[in-house]
C-alpha cells in the first residue's frame, strides 16, 4: 500500500522540514496548513500590509489560500476536495471563524465535513489567523460518503458542517458541545442558577455530551462507544481534568479508547459558556473485527486508557505527555542550583518520543510512518527545542506536524508539551 510525503517544505534556512500532506493507503492527511509560502512566510498577497482595508478580510484570504492549495494537491494525488472527511481548525481569535466558513462552504460545495474549531493563543506564524488539519479519502479507495444527521444534533447554520459522516468503515463525529436544540448549553448540563453545589459543571456537561450528543451520533451511523478509535477532548479549565476523567471512565469502563485531552483558555469554543468539546473517530459495527488494541508499558495521563488502537492499517494514538510516577519526567527537571544546564522542553520531547516509539513498535510499525503530529504547547518559544528532539532522519525526511500554543497550564506543573500522534501500519 502507498505511503507518500507530499509537498515537503524547508523553513528557517532549512532547519525545519515540514510535510503538509501525507498519503497513507486510502487516506490523505493534511497537517499544519496555513497561508504560507514554501519559505514558511505568510503570503504577502494574503497579508496586503499596505492595503489594510482591502476586501475580502485577511482571514478570508488566508482560508482561500489554504483551500486553493488543497484543491490542487488533492487533485494531483488521487483525491479531490469533495473527498474531505474531516477538518480541524485552530483560530487565534473568534472573529476569524466566520470569514473562514465563507470559503470553506464554497470550496467544499456546501458539503462540509465534520469539523472542530478551537480558539488558541498562538500559531507558528505569528501573523496567521488559522491553522487547518484535514483528512480525505482517495478516489482509488471508492469509499462511499454517507452523511448522518441525527435528529437531536443541531448544527449552527453559519458553519453548515455534517455532525457525523461515514466514509467506508470509519465514522467521523464532529466536535460536540453540551448543547440542546436551541444551540445553547442545555439546562441539564448547568448547575442551577444561584446554587453553588447542586452538581458540578464539567461533570454535567460531560454527561450530557456523551448521552445526548456522542452516543446518538454513533448509533445513527452504525457504531457505539465500544468502537471508538480515538477521541480529542478540549477543556477550557485545566483544573477540570480529574472530574472529566471520572465521567469519561464511567462511560467506557476499564477499556478507555485512545484519548488526547488538551487544555485551552476560556472561552475556547463556539458557544461562549461551554467548558468542553469532544470529537471522535470510530469504526462501523460491521468492521468491529478490524479493531486491535495496542498494549505496551507507557505512562499516560488517564488510568485504564488503551495506548493506541489500530484499524485497517491506521494507528490512533493516545495523547502523550512526559510524565513519570504521576509527575513530570525526572530528566526534564532542572537542578535548583544549576538550572541553565537542562533544556526541559527538549527532555520532555525526548521522553514523549521514546513512548511513541514503544507504541508504534508494538503496533508493528515505526515513526517513519507518522501521518500526523500535533504539538500542543504551553509556550511556542519552546518549539525548536521540541522539534529538534525528533530523530534527525525523520526531521530531514519531513514531519507532518503543526504546533499551537494553548495555554500555560498543561495539567502537570512545568509541562511544555502534549503530543497528539496518528500513524500508518504498512502490510
Structural class: alpha+beta
Find the CATH topology of the largest domain.
60s Ribosomal Protein L30, Chain: A
CATH superfamily of the largest domain: RutC-like
Oligomer: single chain
Summarize the amount of helix as a percent range: 10-25%
- What is the correct CATH architecture of the largest domain? 2-Layer Sandwich
User: Strand percentage, roughly?
Assistant: 25-35%
Q: Please, how many domains?
A: 3
Arithmetic mean pLDDT? 94
Lateral strand order in the biggest sheet: 8-22-21-23-18-17-16
Give a count of the beta strands, DSSP E runs of length 2 or more. 23
- Sheet bearing the most strands, described? 7 strands, mixed
Q: Write down the overall geometry.
A: globular
Task: Determine the N-to-C terminus distance.
Answer: 7 Å
Q: For the record, what CATH class of the largest domain applies?
A: Alpha Beta
Can you count the helices? 8
Poorly predicted runs are none
Rg from alpha-carbon coordinates: 20 Å
Explain the overall architecture.
The protein has 427 residues and is an alpha+beta fold. It folds into three domains: 1-142, RutC-like (60s Ribosomal Protein L30, Chain: A), CATH 3.30.1330; 144-291, 60s Ribosomal Protein L30, Chain: A; 320-427, 60s Ribosomal Protein L30, Chain: A (2-Layer Sandwich), CATH 3.30.1330.40. The chain has helices at 44-47, 58-76, 97-107, 201-220, 241-252, 344-362, 383-388, 392-397; strands at residues 3-6, 9-11, 16-18, 21-24, 27-33, 84-91, 115-119, 122-123, 130-137, 145-148, 164-167, 170-176, 228-235, 259-263, 276-283, 291-294, 308-311, 314-317, 323-324, 327-328, 370-377, 401-405, 417-424. The strands form five sheets. The chain has a seven-stranded mixed sheet, with helices on one face. The longest helix is centred in the middle third of the chain and has 20 residues, at 201-220. It is globular and about 55 Å long.
